[in-house]
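Protein modeling request. Please complete all fields; requests missing the sequence field cannot be processed.
Requester role: graduate student
Desired output: 3D structure, token encoding
Chains: 1
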Amino acid sequence: MPPARRSPAAASPPASRSAGRRRESAEVQAVRAHRFLFALLALVLSATPAAAQFGQNKITYETFDWKVYRSPHFDVHFYELTDAQLEEVVSEAESAYLDLSQRLDHEVRIRIPMILYRTHKEFQQTNISLQEIPEAVAAFTEPFQMRMVLPIDDPPDKRYKLIRHELVHVFEFDIFFGDSLRRTIRGRAPLWLMEGLASYLGDDEDSFDQMVIRDAVVNNLVPSIRELDVLSFLTYRYGHAIFDFIEKEFGPQGVRSFLFEFRKSLLSGNIEKPLRDAFDMSVEQFDRRFARYLRRRYLPVLTDKLSPDEYGKEVGLSKPGRFTFSPELSPSGDLIAALATPGLELDVVILSAKDGELIRNLTRGFTNKYDSIVTGVFEGKRDLAWSPDGSMLAFFVARENVHELRIYDPVSGRLLERITIDEIAAPRSPAFSPDGQWIAFSGNLGGYWDIFRVNIDSKEIENLTRDVHPDSNPSWTPDGKRILYNRRIGSFEKIFSVEVGAPEHKTQLTTGAASDIQPRLSQDGQWIYFSSDRGLYGVFNLHRLSTADGRIERLTDLAGGAFAPVELAPAGDGARQLVFSAFSGGTFRLYRMKLAGEAVEKAIAAGKAEPRTSPLAPSRRRSATEEREGGSAVSEPPQTGKEDEDLRPFVPPLRLRLDADKQEDYRLTWRLDQPDITLGVTDDGRLLSHVALQFSDLLGNQRIFIASNSVNQFSNTSVTYLNVTRRLDWGAQLADYRDFFLVSDSLGRSSLERSTRITQVSGFLRYPFNRHYRVEAQLGYAQQRYDLPLGFDVQTGELLFLRFSNDFPFGSLSLVGDTTRFRNFGPFHGHRFRLDLTGYKVVSGDLDGESVKEIRWDYRGYQHLTARSLVGVRFAGVLRDGRLANVSSLGGLNQLRGFRFREFFGENVVWANLELRFPLFDRIVWSFGLPTGPVRAAMFVDAGSAWYGDELLPDGSRGKIVYDPLLGAFRPYATRGPDGKLLDLHVSAGFDLSVPLLGLPMHWSFARIYDGDTLGPTRSDFYITFDW
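Delivered output (1028 residues):
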């Protein structure tokens, strides 16, 4: 984006004040009947859109030496990869392309750019998107250049599915958009289609995904496809299920037919027509058959299954509406630590194990000390760890490009330790050692996932596994000499143990084609408890492994899922006890169970005959290639000695060898990226146009912005170069601004009178201190041609102008901050501000030697009251000193409601707004079927003033003056008039209604002007602008 500066509505070209006013007295003293509107459309010393005034910082922490490898279908961009790693990724990509092109019967028309990052932490720094990339985003593909952007630090089988998922998006873009820029910009494919197809053809659904959609179907949460255009986890899952349904009902050809029929309706986004043309079904008919398919698929899972409370008693968390994740019981059994949403963000809370009452929120409220709490619960990872004596609780948080291990006192809520984990990416699953001195965790070092431990006192970190296999989920044995953990083999998680301090001493403890996760040793060392998706439907249930003879027993048989088993002290009758987390009804809850009784005996019996592969268990689903080649989808239980048959390292279908001649250094090339073109007509017949073209190199590190806005023959044009290769952003700008004045007569008729023009060149720097605060600097040179309006001639009624021509250098220094949280309706909590210090001096022209100093500020603060209501406050303005000064305007829109747009102007402008914002309706569906929402309202008070400063007054003193449009002349500034009412301080109050329509915020304001004594009549105005 161009250098962040200021809003076009708040700035104007420099204008002389003193020279013109020396000539005005004889010409405008008697002017009464005419008023003129000083309309300003351009920026001076800036070409930045208003949205760029603020914004949190996307920071480049590292630079990379990029290379390019040209495979048959891909231009693979990479850095710091070994030949073996590159060969694996190229083979996976070409394998995925071959399969997808056959299944879709389509060849992509271009070579596909693939940009690889070694780790997810480095991927988050990509400049291909200048938006912040959350930890939850695994990869992305953009439609204009069809670039696949992804990290490659996942295990090989997951990485292959990730590549397939993103490659499906490339096929979608090519099929739907082709080489049409218009279709790319205006295409309206629903989210369930785009992401559902990518998941379906990517074959990336696992047992956790199935658990969530199975639970939703069982609880009768099956939406219409019209409602599946919301960014949520279930939209992805239902989208995948829709294509499973289409293939089952109509075969693979049905999927292709639907896609190519939808292509015809892409611009309208009408889903009814492609459903009718491809399947001869209406949306309602499709919804009914799809819901029936889901019920038939998932309801049989309930047969002979038990609910978690049939195995034991729920421990706390029983309040309705309390949604929790990753609950962990304290060693004493009195407290529960959990991830929950008692407020509006994910927090770590301490609850009573007795009744679920909230005892303490350790991370209460919004914070800027870290970005997010790390959670891997839907990846089968533990998130929280109690120390053995219950005096400490540990978890990871993400903070910019590093992670922190935070250790709290769970009772007092005091932060005890912050340990920065900077060299190891994506730390997960903390686990205290028995002596409380060390915390084990998993993490990615140099592209390899290992088990580490960190000393709480010395902060020393040690790698405990040191191998190339993906390791996770560590837990200590009671003697502290060994660690149990998961190693991923092929597509399955198996249980291993390693001797602490001797990474070469590893032992594999489980085998077979299933994922065995979250191992924990019993107190007497006789059993290892774990969760596994063994079984026909791939449901995670609790199991135990005998350390004496290796036998495995299933302990639960649930329809949802059971996780994180921990053995407690024996019950009063001597029976072993477990506490575990169960997923049901859309949330995780904690249960205590005895390892005795009929329910456990039935579960052990049910687990004795488990199929090795099953189409109902995603982790053991046969590949699409295998299914097309025939063969049974469900196999018999494995024979003794053959359980490891499927536990082979993942190998893609194609294996390509690298050709050294196809590797080269990365070269800069410019390509069109994200164009924006708009045409319109004003209410008085003037032609409006907006053209914004953005060119970038393939990596997004260098960008050129070309922007042009015009009204009839008057245009603002700028060309900006931006380089974000390093932390210090820099760039240059060439801009040409043209402005005009509108003159209104006593009948309200306006005509175009005069224009101004400024041409400038500048360079700028931006340095972010952190994600929320930055400093900016700009230096430049401008040439100005300006017509200053003086007033109307008494004899002819003609508006008089004084022409100026000036050249001047300028400079500015800015401090910018932004901690704002947003909801779907706009800013919600936090603050944002911008403080600009600017100076310029004329070196050639009519005002040679004159200079101006300027301070400009804009502060906006938001305090949430409820989940959807807030109080907002804004204080903004500009103060100038010098004979050559800008003229700014005030009035209208959401700046000073109840007054005309830009009704007041001067060299100095100050205004303030106070708003109470609240919801009216979440959604409105019009009779023609178009939904809109949310509909919101605000009660407001606006105040503002504009003036010219330090002028010679009639009594010989110096002071502030204003231009009075009723007089057609300047007069001394006065907050109140002779009658005691407000004169040059303008105040209004009222009600504002906001309705989004076609992506634009439509506002109707009903304002009453306050004169210091009474409120005037209500004035209604309509405007389109986003809330400040």
